[in-house]
Amino acid sequence: xxxxxxxxxxxxxxxxxxxxxxxxxxxxxxxxxxxxxxxxxxxxxxxxxxxxxxxxxxxxxxxxxxxxxxxxxxxxxxxxxxxxxxxxxxxxxxxxxxxxxxxxxxxxxxxxxxxxxxxxxxxxxxxxxxxxxxxxxxxx
Length: 140
Prior knowledge:
The structure is a single chain. The protein is mostly helical. The longest helix has 59 residues. The N and C termini lie far apart (83 Å). About 5% of the residues have low confidence.
């Protein structure tokens, strides 16, 4: 009786193993089919985009692939008082002491002073005259 039960258990384990292998194979085939359909869809979209570009070029003549847009003068859009118009006494509260980074500044005014008057500062990455924009939430 025990021998028969052992054989049945082994047979069930074998069947479950085969079912699991078949399930994995079936799932992988579905995955491959889905991937193939997505690739076809992307290729169709690329082809449609190329047709649109060709139609626009036919209607408007040859257009450059890339148009360079000049950045807007952000400095003109930001309302702030230039440090030069501040009284001399206000400018004297800061001195160049070797600090170079925004994380070392305690205020926006201090960052402006260091950016304008101290060498080797690294506080105006986009060179628009507004230092530490993210830290002090300026120029946005």
